[in-house]
Amino acid sequence: MDKIVIYGEIIGEISEKAECTNPIHGICNWSFTESVQPDSLGKFQIETAAKEFMFIKIRTSYTEQGTLIVEPGTIYNVRFNLNDKENIFSITGKSSAIQKTYNKFPKPEHIQFAAREFLRDTIATKIKETIEQRKTAEIAEFKKLYSDKLVSRKLFDMVKTDTTCYYDAVLATTAWIKNLMTIQGRDQVFPKEFEDLWKGAFDHPLFPNPEIVKSQWFNFYAESFITLKVFMYEQIKNLIPNCGKYLIEEVQ
Q: Cβ distance 89 to 66 under 8 Å?
């Protein structure tokens, strides 16, 4: 495994620590973290190792954070300029073009924050159209970087999978929360079109692609899938007694 070195700098109020995800088996998740203490000038250094491309999340607080797309044996320089609210997180070093492009798209700390935007919408097809348009537009920007030979095919494929995972998880989570709202009594019925929206998010499941586990959105994607399977099981379980009742009446 090759060493990855991240040199960091905090401009503004210096936090007590800088924290990043520790990519065990390439997994990017805040459940696995390591932290370092910045010096009096706001400088810090993080070292890790990897044998392939992967994502690393890094933050100085819960609101000031960014994502690094890292390559084995590479050095990166990151800056948290807390005095510049429009451009808090920046990266220089190898593949800076895709780093900047990736981080310019707003991504929430939790997938439910992204789904919240659509919870008042009642037209499932409109929600799907909006999410699909955003996914297509974002992937197109990464594809242009690949076409311009600014990133490798392998790196493009990883980022494309991550982006697809994110937007499919947003779609599924929106439908899932709509179902929860029905259970909690805030909506009278769970519409069939939202059930189809939920199922449709997994028409082309990403699970066969081993790159999916690198995505920071994988756990939300998998959670929505498992919850969908539970929902479908409950539907079948509730249907069976009724089928039995109708069969008995038919025999009589």
A: yes
